[in-house]
């Protein structure tokens, strides 16, 4: 489904991603871990099409298409979904109007008919249950005045509404208490199928108790320096990232 | 010198004046002669060189004659859903046969009110154009809402403007409301044809204690319309005045809006949107004078400027020494959508009292890129995402319009503009 080869990206002349390789198949869950500042959010943003980042080398093929050639909205319609690490507050744009516009533009692209107000509301009610989000929140402006946890839940709710094939969850767990974490993970797990895939970006192992990954990758200084199974996450939990840093540094000096 | 020539030409206009209100007219004429037409050097018109604009476009400084307006024209011009009364004008001349008989409100020509204190609110010495109007207006409309009258239906002032030789249209209004009266005006002008004309308008509003006056205006005239307006009101004890001004088009538009807060617990609200493209130039000069303690003023103007359009905002808040416990808020936010668009924004606070709460701020920026990306990342087309964000930006002002049909109308015009043009 997704094939990333030798991806290099920089911002304002500084190279942040320095040769990422990653293969993701339908039905899989990949976790990307790594210390702060290693480039996890950069990778997520580049995949979603954020223009500030300049891709200097490499390619990304998504469902046979060259992802990097597509505008962000086209990527979304193709099925890429990014749950933002820091969802943006947009005063004056109502959550409901926004979602309806988004859902219908995505549906139109996928050859599905637009949802009328009634059908849209039915879909919303159904998906709201998934992440136990309060209707009151959705009558407000998009993310405005939402707590951290509410914003993260809203991200997963939007994901449920847009029915993506590749979901990238950027630190969706940070700042959540156990209850919220359980709700959010539960939502993600219910949306999982053998036709879609999930990339979970986190620097805590805790989330992976709830969303169990097939593969765990460690991103460090813009490269994937280690890959393994969920046991790797446990090892990182126990030993921290220092041993990885040392391994990388000693490899570099050899 | 060309400016002198222009001044002479306006003197020609002054000489066409009727004989009534001779004291007020003479005073205004003298005032005009000592001020002259503002040119680039005039501080108050620094960013809006109206003198030059008039010289280039107004070939014939003579009163524009009224033309025929049919009831079909009126009906097709009234916005959808409007249920209210109607006063119709052709080049500033009142057309009673096309206008409503408004229940409970006195409407007559200014020429029928010989003892009216013309110019006692919008004083000619404050602005050259107010002076020109006062010296030379043909006639105008007197509207009086009696004490305690609650006029539920809004009153739409619908003006049709057209001048084939680039002439001058000088509407003038005297609006008064007795104590406790409530009334809403909607002021809308329709351009017929694309020829230049110059509207020089004056509205004086005199409210009693505890009155609630609302004045909503939509400026969506042709791209060659030149307009200067002087709107001034006295706000008495416990009274509230609210103005919402939506500017969407015009060649050069200058709005002078002045509120004199004269009684305690009075409230003055000034809101505005200027959403411009092409070469439209809109200048809002507002002035609120806090003369007494315990009064409040609120001001919010928002600008969206595309292409080579230009916006000017100048908000003066004057708090006199006696005006303790004043609350005065002012905000002006702008989004520039093109490198060629210009905004000149200036808050002007003069505060002589020491126990006051005043805040002001102005911002000039581009669209929020993070918000734009967020919307796109959910599948929303970039143009539409921009439209959503700009509409949200303008929405804060739009919601100040309490008359629903008019709000929906402005809303539709703004959405159309944002969807197509930006
Ligand atoms: N907009 C930006 N401008 C400059 N540097 C940035 C920007 N965004 C990220 N970086 C830098 O890129 C590196 C990787 O950041 P990021 O991808 O956010 O890391 P992570 O998500 O793994 O914590 C950091 O060193 C960060 O300072
Ligand atoms: Mg990050």
Automatic annotation (TrEMBL), chain A:
GO molecular function: ATP binding; ATP hydrolysis activity
InterPro entries per record: AAA+_ATPase (IPR003593), ABC_transporter-like_ATP-bd (IPR003439), FeS-cluster_ATPase_SufC (IPR010230), P-loop_NTPase (IPR027417)
Gene3D superfamilies membership: P-loop containing nucleotide triphosphate hydrolases (3.40.50.300)
SMART domains xref list: AAA
Record keywords: ATP-binding, Nucleotide-binding
One Gene Ontology cellular component annotation held by this UniProt entry: cytoplasm
Domain ABC transporter positions: 2-246
Record-linked Pfam families: ABC_tran
PANTHER family named among the record's database cross-references: ABC TRANSPORTER I FAMILY MEMBER 6, CHLOROPLASTIC
Family: Belongs to the ABC transporter superfamily. Ycf16 family.
Protein name as catalogued: Iron-regulated ABC transporter ATPase subunit SufC
UniProtKB/TrEMBL annotation, chain B:
GO biological process, one term: iron-sulfur cluster assembly
InterPro entries: Fe-S_cluster_assembly_SufBD (IPR055346), SUF_FeS_clus_asmbl_SufBD_core (IPR000825), SUF_FeS_clus_asmbl_SufBD_sf (IPR037284), SUF_FeS_clus_asmbl_SufD (IPR011542), SufBD_N (IPR045595)
Annotated signal sequence range: none
Residues of the SUF system FeS cluster assembly SufBD N-terminal domain: 18-155
Sequence ranges assigned to domain SUF system FeS cluster assembly SufBD core in this UniProt record: 164-393
Family: Belongs to the iron-sulfur cluster assembly SufBD family.
Protein name: Fe-S cluster assembly protein SufD
The species this protein was found in: Algoriphagus alkaliphilus
Lineage: Bacteria, Pseudomonadati, Bacteroidota, Cytophagia, Cytophagales
């Amino acid at each position: 489904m997704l094939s990333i080869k030798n991806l290099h990206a920089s911002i304002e002349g500084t190279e942040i991603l320095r040769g990422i390789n990653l293969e993701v198949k339908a039905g899989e869950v990949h976790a990307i871990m790594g210390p702060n500042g290693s480039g996890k959010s950069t990778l997520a943003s580049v995949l979603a099409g954020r223009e500030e980042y300049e891709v200097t080398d490499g390619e990304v093929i998504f469902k046979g298409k060259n992802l990097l050639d597509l505008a962000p909205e086209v990527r979304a319609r193709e099925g890429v979904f990014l749950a933002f690490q820091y969802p943006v507050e947009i005063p004056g744009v109502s959550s409901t109007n926004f979602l309806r516009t988004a859902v219908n533009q995505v549906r139109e692209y996928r050859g599905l008919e637009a949802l009328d107000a009634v059908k849209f509301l039915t879909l919303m009610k159904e998906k709201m249950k998934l992440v136990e989000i309060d209707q009151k929140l959705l009558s407000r402006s998009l993310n405005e005045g939402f707590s951290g946890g509410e914003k993260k839940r809203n991200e997963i709710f939007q994901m449920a509404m847009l029915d993506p094939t590749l979901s990238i969850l950027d630190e969706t767990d940070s700042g959540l208490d156990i209850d919220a974490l359980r709700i959010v993970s539960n939502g993600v797990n219910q949306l999982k199928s053998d036709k879609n895939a999930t990339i979970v970006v986190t620097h805590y192992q805790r989330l992976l108790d709830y969303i169990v990954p097939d593969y765990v990758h460690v991103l460090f200084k813009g490269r994937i320096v280690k890959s393994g199974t969920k046991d790797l996450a446990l090892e990182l939990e126990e030993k921290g990232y220092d041993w990885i840093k040392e391994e990388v540094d000693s490899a570099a000096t050899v | 010198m060309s400016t002198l020539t222009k001044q002479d030409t306006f003197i020609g206009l002054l000489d066409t004046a009727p004989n009534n209100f001779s004291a007020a007219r003479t005073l205004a004429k003298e005032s005009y002669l000592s001020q002259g037409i503002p040119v680039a050097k005039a501080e108050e018109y620094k960013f809006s060189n109206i003198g030059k604009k008039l010289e280039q476009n107004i070939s014939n400084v003579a009163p524009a004659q009224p033309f025929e307006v049919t009831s079909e024209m009126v009906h097709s011009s009234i916005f959808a859903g409007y249920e209210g009364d109607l006063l119709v004008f052709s080049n500033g001349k009142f057309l009673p046969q096309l206008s409503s008989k408004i229940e409970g409100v006195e409407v007559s020509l200014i020429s029928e009110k010989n003892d009216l204190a013309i110019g006692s609110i919008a004083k000619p010495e404050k602005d050259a154009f107010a002076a020109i109007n006062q010296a030379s207006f043909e006639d105008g409309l007197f509207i009086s809402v009696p004490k305690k009258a609650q006029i539920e239906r809004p009153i739409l002032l619908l003006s049709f403007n057209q001048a084939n030789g680039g002439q001058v249209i000088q509407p003038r209004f005297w609006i008064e409301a007795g104590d406790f009266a409530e009334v809403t005006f909607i002021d809308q002008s329709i351009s017929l044809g694309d020829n230049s004309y110059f509207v020089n308008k004056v509205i004086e509003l005199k409210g009693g204690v505890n009155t609630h006056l609302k004045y909503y205006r939509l400026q969506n005239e042709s791209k060659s319309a030149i307009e200067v307006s002087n709107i001034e009101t006295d706000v008495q004890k416990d009274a509230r005045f609210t103005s919402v001004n939506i500017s969407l088009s015009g060649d050069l538009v200058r709005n002078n809006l002045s509120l004199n807060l004269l009684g305690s617990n009075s409230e003055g609200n000034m809101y505005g949107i200027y959403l411009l493209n092409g070469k439209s130039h809109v200048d809002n000069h507002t002035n609120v004078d806090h003369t007494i303690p315990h009064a409040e003023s609120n001001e919010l103007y928002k600008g969206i400027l595309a292409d080579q359009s230009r916006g000017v905002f100048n908000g003066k808040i004057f708090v006199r020494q006696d005006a303790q416990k004043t609350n005065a808020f002012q905000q002006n936010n702008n989004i520039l959508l093109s490198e060629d668009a210009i905004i000149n924004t200036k808050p002007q606070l003069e505060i002589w009292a020491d126990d006051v709460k005043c805040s002001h701020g102005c911002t000039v920026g581009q669209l929020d890129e993070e918000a734009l990306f967020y919307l796109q990342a959910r599948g929303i087309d970039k143009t539409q995402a921009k439209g959503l964000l700009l509409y949200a930006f303008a929405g804060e002002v739009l919601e100040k319009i309490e008359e629903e049909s008019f709000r929906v109308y402005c809303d539709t015009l703004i959405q159309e503009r944002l969807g197509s043009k930006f």
